[in-house]
Amino acid sequence: MSTPLIIAIVIGIILVLMYNSLVSKKNQVENIFASIDTQLKKRYDLIPNLVASVGKYMEHEKSILQEVTKLRAEANKPNISDEEKIHLDAKVTSALGSIMVAVENYPELKANENVMHLQRSLNEVEEQISAARRAYNQAVTDYNNAIEMIPTNFMASAMSYTRKEVFEIPDTQRQNVNVKELFNS
Q1: Is this prediction's pTM over 0.85?
Q2: 155-to-14, 69, 152, 169 alpha-carbon distances in Å
Q3: Exposed/middle/buried for 10, CB within 10 Å: 0-12, 13-18, 19+?
Q4: d(CA 63, CA 46)
Q5: With 123 labelled, which of 62, 68, 93, 103 sits at a CA distance of 20 to 30 A?
Q6: How far, in Å, CA of 168 to CA of 112, rounded?
Q7: Distance separating alpha carbons of residues 127 and 124, to the nearest angstrom
Q8: Which residue intervals of 81-151 are DSSP H helices?
């Protein structure tokens, strides 16, 4: 076997390995995002029950409930991009947090068995979403590293692969909880 033929075979094997690695990382990101989508659907299915259960008690927080309902409707639209889903998830997370804080101001609502069940269900779904976000962010980081590092960046560019967005914590959730304000309300 001639030396140029051996070099061509080695280069071909390297290109195939790089191509397969990039496709594997892209598919991993899509697979994990699909699991997040499933968890988000579970959460969005719980929202109408939550709004119906707390709506009659929380007349003063009607705007929060309307905001959650509006965000849910936006999230359930067909053909929204992954980036839009990520942004809507952050908004829904914040709005649901506001509802749960507001529930604390209504003792009869806090003691309602339906609301307690919905809170437990939402907490469970939120924990599953959180775990799926971590897995997704790790897969996206691996993918983004692969499409930016040499030599796979050349092949990723030829395949039109672009950076993916990770789930980030909204600024409102990064702030420390003001315990004094929480107990004075």
Answers
A1: no
A2: 11, 44, 5, 32
A3: exposed
A4: 18
A5: 62
A6: 33
A7: 5
A8: 82-103, 107-110, 113-148
